Amino acid sequence: MKKYIVLAASAVLALAACSKVAPVTEPDQAITFDVINYANSTKADQAGHLAFEGTDFGSYAWVTQTNWATEGEGTYFWTPNNQQITKNNAGKWTTSTMYFWPKQAKLSFASYAPYMATGAPTYTKANGWAMSNYTINNDANVDLMFADLVTDLTGNVTTAEAREGDGGKHFADGVPTLFRHKLTRVSFKFALAEDENAYENISDVYIVVNSASIVNVKNTGSYAGDVWTPAAATAEYAFVTSNKELKTKGTFVDADANRILLPQALVASAANAPGQQLKISYTIYTKYEGSTEYLQEPIVDELYDLRGTAVTNWTPNMDVLYKVSIYPTEQNPIYFDPAVKAWDTPVAEQALDVNKSE
Predict the structure, then answer these.
(1) pLDDT tens, position by position, 219-254
(2) What is the pLDDT of residues 330-358, one digit of tens each?
(3) What span, in angstroms and rounded, lies between the C-alpha atoms of 114 and 181?
(4) Same fold for the pair 14-181 and 184-327
(5) What is the three-class DSSP state of 43?
(6) Of 300, 301, 305, the residue nearest 273 (C-alpha)
(7) Cβ atoms 321, 10 nearer than 8 A
(8) What's this model's pTM, rounded to 2 decimal places?
């Protein structure tokens, strides 16, 4: 019997948040960062965001005298150009060596996370963020983020944060650093198919997902102009590494992990040209009507395209969930088609004499 599964994918994009600039009152105010990042929000809470929970991040800073838009990038404010920003003992995000706001000039900032001393992204006024040959490792789940450019500040900003989930306002002082996810997060859920027509003549059935991974996924690319350009290299990423039992129709079970992966166009497989695919191995345990024992049928390394009508591309800041429904059978009953082959015409005759006396 032919087995098949259905993949349904959905994607959610994150929304924005806002800040208000307050004037500087202290002549020697230390530069700190108010770090926030995008989170999934409802239309009623488009300012919703979560506090940054990541590790150290990097920041570029430029000095301008009047206006970033007309003046140009100016000169770098600190060295190295990508200064490491760390949370100090007081809970403030700042540089390890304290820097202070200039009294006459203005500062503009471009920040990224996580911090990279080498191989870091760069920022230019003409081209924005750029990064070359960034690779998604098999054993890492790095949430690469670029913050919105912040220009012409004269001091720390008082930010009103409407953090998602508590409905309250939170105020913090610092350079408003609003991160945007630049990779795609992919996750999987698995369930027995809910279609009752798939269970005719079956008294009980359950499925164990033994392993699941995605293959032919591009894992290296360059970023420019808010667009990723993947290279040809591909990799395989595991999502299920321990057995997952599916016993209730329509009840989805989470995979062992989700993955943060390189944005890319999804390609439908063709002859000798496979696209990005789910590779899944599972075992079907079926008890038919009138039987007292389960029949076991292992299905090994079946492949299914990830491209579908709902999701044709992975884009930056997209959260993609694949809901995989597995059918125990396509319900092709076993029938018999009897026929009789015509007698062959003999090519010779043979006379036999039985019990003849010599």
Answers:
(1) 999 999 999 999 999 999 999 999 999 999 999 999
(2) 545 455 566 666 767 666 666 677 766 65
(3) 11
(4) yes
(5) helix
(6) 305
(7) yes
(8) 0.81
Specify the fold of 184-327. Immunoglobulin-like (2.60.40)
DSSP H helices in the chain: 68-71
DSSP 8-class letter at 68: H
Domain ranges of the chain: 14-181, 184-327
Q: Is 142 helix (H, G, I), strand (E, B) or coil?
A: coil
pLDDT confidence of residue 18: 37
- CATH code of 14-181, in short, is 2.60.40
